[in-house]
């Protein structure tokens, strides 16, 4: 069980003290997936980094099965960190190491015997379904595959808790889905506890047992996912849920209104500035109508989606879709 009590972390800005985490308390049971959702700047990353002391809190307690992480000496903390795995939005893999070497790293630090390391690495590769990439380098992997390796590395020492700091935010919907399934597998197979922070309600809603909403360094609402959706009390919570419902309404309207095939295109940093759609229309005998779309800035990168209707001959449509996919756009058929 993890208990966070009255956690505080402030930063000295030019003139005054800024309270990034301002008296946060919550507890998470073993085997639970606990989501912390909030807008940019709410203090989510700082909070989660205080849990494993990547950031030193000013005040409070972080108890993992009764052990207060904040009271540990540097040496004791190094040992206890084995109990806390963490993954990041940007994967943070060692680029000069192979997949197997990345996963071995925490085991080597923990002085696990070589033969045991080899066995554990193979077991983890099987678990994340990436056996064939054992000797590949991170640069040779897709974003989703990189995050699976980062997860294997984070859980290699069989920690009690896995912290995810926007672990799916850089991924397209299909890869997000596969990472969320992996989270579920970690909880059922290894009985770990997961604390995940996200700014996306659609990510939290399908997987979290309970969700806490954070704003200005405080938890402003906390409930089981079902209850939070049924009866959101705070304005910010309601706006997270409303956006989600608007997406669902939009998709229903699209299905009713448009005669042709409708697709949802997902694009990221490498694709959103390129004139892929206009080239697609030039190269193939199809018409593309934009229905709706958006761009979100996540950290340094921009990701977004476009809903489009494609009309034209079936064979041409297929070629156009292949062209989009070849150019790094994810294509999901809505109707
Ligand atoms: N090292 C630091 N020094 C000064 N201020 C900081 C530091 N780290 C974070 N902050 C501030 O604390 C606040 C909370 O930041 P934090 O990264 O925890 O928010 P967040 O909810 O994770 O947002 P995002 O999703 O954009 O990362 C922000 O206003 C940020 O500018």
TrEMBL record:
<dbReference type="InterPro" id="IPR045865">
    <property type="entry name" value="ACT-like_dom_sf"/>
</dbReference>
<dbReference type="GO" id="GO:0016887">
    <property type="term" value="F:ATP hydrolysis activity"/>
</dbReference>
<keyword id="KW-0547">Nucleotide-binding</keyword>
<dbReference type="GO" id="GO:0006865">
    <property type="term" value="P:amino acid transport"/>
</dbReference>
<dbReference type="GO" id="GO:0005524">
    <property type="term" value="F:ATP binding"/>
</dbReference>
<dbReference type="InterPro" id="IPR027417">
    <property type="entry name" value="P-loop_NTPase"/>
</dbReference>
<keyword id="KW-0813">Transport</keyword>
<dbReference type="InterPro" id="IPR050086">
    <property type="entry name" value="MetN_ABC_transporter-like"/>
</dbReference>
<keyword id="KW-0472">Membrane</keyword>
<dbReference type="InterPro" id="IPR003439">
    <property type="entry name" value="ABC_transporter-like_ATP-bd"/>
</dbReference>
<dbReference type="InterPro" id="IPR017871">
    <property type="entry name" value="ABC_transporter-like_CS"/>
</dbReference>
<dbReference type="GO" id="GO:0005886">
    <property type="term" value="C:plasma membrane"/>
</dbReference>
<dbReference type="InterPro" id="IPR003593">
    <property type="entry name" value="AAA+_ATPase"/>
</dbReference>
<feature type="domain" description="ABC transporter">
    <location>
        <begin position="2"/>
        <end position="241"/>
    </location>
</feature>
<keyword id="KW-1278">Translocase</keyword>
<keyword id="KW-1003">Cell membrane</keyword>
<dbReference type="Pfam" id="PF09383">
    <property type="entry name" value="NIL"/>
</dbReference>
<comment type="similarity">
    <text>Belongs to the ABC transporter superfamily.</text>
</comment>
<protein>
    <submittedName>
        <fullName>ATP-binding cassette domain-containing protein</fullName>
    </submittedName>
</protein>
<keyword id="KW-0067">ATP-binding</keyword>
<dbReference type="Pfam" id="PF00005">
    <property type="entry name" value="ABC_tran"/>
</dbReference>
<dbReference type="InterPro" id="IPR041701">
    <property type="entry name" value="MetN_ABC"/>
</dbReference>
<keyword id="KW-0029">Amino-acid transport</keyword>
<dbReference type="InterPro" id="IPR018449">
    <property type="entry name" value="NIL_domain"/>
</dbReference>
């Amino acid at each position: 069980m993890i208990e966070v009590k009255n956690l505080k972390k402030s930063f000295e800005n030019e003139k005054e003290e800024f309270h990034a985490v301002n008296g946060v308390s919550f507890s998470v049971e073993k085997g639970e997936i606990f989501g912390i959702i909030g807008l940019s700047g709410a203090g989510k990353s700082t909070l989660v980094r205080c849990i494993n002391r990547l950031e030193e809190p000013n005040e409070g307690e972080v108890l993992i099965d009764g052990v207060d992480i904040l009271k540990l000496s540097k040496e004791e903390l190094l040992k206890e960190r084995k109990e806390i795995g963490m993954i990041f939005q940007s994967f943070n893999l060692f680029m000069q190491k192979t997949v197997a070497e990345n996963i071995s790293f925490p085991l080597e630090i923990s002085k696990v015997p070589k033969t045991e390391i080899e066995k554990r690495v193979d077991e983890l590769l099987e678990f994340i379904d990436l056996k064939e990439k054992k000797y590949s380098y991170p640069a040779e992997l897709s974003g989703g595959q990189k995050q699976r390796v980062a997860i294997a590395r984070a859980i290699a020492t069989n920690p009690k808790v896995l912290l995810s700091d926007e672990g799916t935010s850089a991924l397209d919907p299909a890869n997000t889905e596969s990472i969320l399934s992996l989270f579920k597998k970690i909880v059922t197979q290894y009985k770990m506890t997961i604390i995940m922070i996200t700014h996306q309600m659609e990510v939290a809603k399908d997987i979290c047992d309970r969700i806490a909403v954070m704003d200005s360094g405080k938890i402003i609402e906390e409930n089981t996912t079902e209850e939070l959706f049924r009866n959101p009390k705070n304005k910010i919570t309601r706006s997270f849920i409303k956006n989600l419902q608007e997406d669902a309404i939009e998709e229903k309207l699209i299905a009713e209104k448009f005669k042709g095939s409708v697709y949802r295109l997902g694009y990221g940093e490498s694709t959103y500035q390129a004139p892929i759609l206009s080239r697609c229309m030039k190269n193939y005998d199809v018409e593309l109508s934009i229905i709706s779309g958006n761009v979100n800035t996540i950290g340094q990168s921009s990701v977004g989606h476009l809903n489009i209707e494609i009309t034209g001959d079936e064979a041409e449509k297929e070629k156009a879709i292949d062209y989009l996919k070849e150019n790094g756009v994810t294509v999901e058929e809505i109707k």
